Amino acid sequence: MTSTEPLLSLRHLSTEFSTTDGTVARALEDVSFDVHPGQTVGLVGESGCGKTTTLLSIMRLLPVTARITSGQVLFNGKDLLALSETDMRRYRWKELSIVFQGAMNALNPVMTIGEQIREAIILHDLMDKTHANRRVNELLDMVGIAPSRRDQYPHEYSGGMRQRAMIAMALACQPCLLFADEPTTALDVMVQAQILELLQKIQRLLGLAVVLVTHDLGVVAEVCDTVVVMYGGKVAENGPVDEVYNAPQHPYTQRLLEAFPDLNRPAGSLAVIPGTPPRLNALPPGCRFAPRCHKAFERCRVEAPAETDLGGGHTAACHLLEKAEAHQ
Amino acid sequence: MNPRWLLLKRNLLDFWKTFRRNRMGLAGAFLVLTAILAAVFAPLLTPYTPTETMRDAEGRALTFAPPSVHAPLGTDDAGRDVWTQLVYGARISLTVGFLAGFIAMFIGSLFGITAGYFGGWVDNLLMRLTDVLLVIPDLPLILVLVATVRQLELKVSPLVILILVIGLLYWTSTARLIRSQVLTIKERQYVYRARAIGAGNWHIVRKHILPQIMPLIVANTVLILSTAILIESGLAFLGLGDPTQPSWGTMLNFAFDRNAVSNGAWWFYLPPGLAIIWATLGCVLLGNVLEEMLNPRLASHHLEGEQSIVTQP
Amino acid sequence: MNRRDYLLRKIFFSLVTLAVVVVLNFLLFRVLPGDPVRAVIGRNVRISADTQQALREQFGLDRPVFPDQFLTALGQWARGNLGVSWSLRKPVSEVLLAKLGNTLLLIGLGQILSIILGVALGLLAGWKRKTAVDVGALTFSLIAWAIPTFWLGIILLAAGSTWLGLPTGGIVSPSNVGKPLYTVLPDVTHHLILPTLTLTILYMGEYMLIMRSSIMEVLGEDYILTAKAKGMSHWQVLRKHALKNAMLPIVTLIAINLGFTVSGAIYVETVFSYDGLGKMFQTALVKQDYPLLQGAFLLLAVSVILANFLADILYTYLDPRVKAS
Domains, chain C, ranges and CATH? Predict the structure, then answer.
């Protein structure tokens, strides 16, 4: 584990959404994890578990129906949640930028790619137009797009190229932290691999810290240093990838990894987790995973488990672990 | 009770619970219902008949008389009570509007379902037809049509011609809406399953598609009614109504032709216009609310205010 | 889509629509009962049997309706020969041309004002959704939609002439009739205030509604979130990313709305006795002057089809998705 100060530190972050039928969806509850400089963190979980909401909460880009109810987002020790909107705008893209999923819709259809990249550089007053233009060419070159294609529109690019352009755009202001929200969904397998490779290359080249949101455990094993497993808006387990993959402590992680195809096991033994993820506006009392957990007992259904520190930066939230700790 | 009836009752109750909280919808329903009630109970709402001329003690017609106790909305150029003409006019305006609206709804639904369900060249043909109708300016087309049909000297009331012409021309928006809805329903699993087990087209449309789009058809019909009432009033104003059965638009045609404006007889030209607004606004409000309830749009967009943050102490 | 394909498709569609209009016009004309010669020269003109026969041959009325008569009519229309007005005893094309300018002036003014106001207010309403501005704009457009055009005209006519002393009709004062319009501009302006105001109120609600829903849809798109993530302010996002995307459908809708615009002109010109195509249309209707009515219908329909086609061409210059390839 690195001993440096974390670049980004989420402390007990909770976010709610008010829904149209008047109920409140507790989309994030008590989410805490750290991202150290130069580290790649994988954020995994089923869809609707709060991965994207976590990113949007950090960047403060949630819709008006959302409310951050408590917690801190410390970036280099400064709480982003305490900033004014104007001050927050200076952090966006310059310090933390983001690659959204499905770059077709994330790029403006009536602006050229070059213009969309240059816009960010000019906006943050980094350089004049001539230099910015040169920088756009450099960026496109870095992600493997011929700079001659800068004056084309998004619909003239293939899906993979759009995602490359999106990555070039995200790097425009030399941020120290990059969020990638399912950057490879909706791309075909070959292109997926290329995009991941590109992300890894850039991460090493620029020494970026990356938070990669995905539901693909294979991707996490391949590119991440640590992994944060989320379930129903809470962190289930968090730790170094090797440790979590080799000795998962939370029953949800265990099930998830069993469901993950392993080359050493015959196909067909793929486990499926029974049941569906909880609806965030009708959460079960107690542990959110209890209704689907094969190891659940009475306490799980009434009391939410606290995070247990398992040492070496490995934590998990499960009553079974508390018991084990008490026995020792 | 029959379980299907119970289900219907529960659905209607649920619907009412949501609808009840919507002020715009309630206002619309109120406007529409009062207009219909006035039309139905017209004879109870006035002691006069619409053609009766009011006279003073010497037997002279009371023309352009301002509102008084005897004539709450005054009299017109021939001394007839404006209020009486207004409530009887509701009968004509609403009847023409409703019948024309229903014809349009029927054609629109039929074409929409056919185009959406069968797709292919049928869809192409019907949609191009709606495109063509959309481009041709509607009022000139109607005027030419009505004038031509009248020239044939058929023994039918001018109102029948109005109903048919409006009904046969204003189905395009319904057809498009229904078509897009049918397209999404067609892709659903149970329709595939029904087809896989060999259900016929008619069976699938009746059992699976029609029940799904019926609420949308109802909502859209209410909106079409407002268009039909408005168009009727315009055509009647241009003199295409039936002078013997005056609608609100015909009243305005009389008022304008007989110089109610220069005579300062505001009680003659204000009420019919307000009545038209009453009925159309009612239909628009009601129809929009019903459509919104069935087909909710965007909950919020990206520039809508700021998310709130409860900052730390 | 390829731009050339797009344009070819639009040309094809315009031609089909044009064909529908032409055939419709021809059929309606033939449906009229009585002697077609009468339809051409008018009801009350006394002519000898010989002359009638000569005319019959001249117009090809002794030949079959289809294809001969249809092709003859088509040839005449293409050369601008729309027959002779019964009531005015003048060639229809001449009458129409004389009125066209006045109508274009009125519609043009109403359109420009309502587009500017409607688009600006619709933008504001959609952006500041669910605020007082939005509720106000929505209420206005709902009521504007429910008001019959001619009635709004009557009310403004009554109010404007009583309280503001504005003229009640016509395009110039009686003393200025016959002079070229540009020599009596103050008088013309004075006459145009009320009809223009009526049309502006009427169209504005429509444009406001369209712009409002268009901007709301655009603001829900992912690229708006990207722009926000770049650190742009709401105003910057709106100006640089939302506006152009939201304006695109408006271009097409303005063209489609031209049919609606024509209806407005018929009502407003009737109420304000404004000497244009709309008023003439209504007069022709009352006097049952069929050649005039049908000529006017042909002219209006063709203008709207043409305007739609022009809007489609304009669109190819504005939207890179059509322009490229």
Answer: 3-32+82-318 (1.10.3720.10)
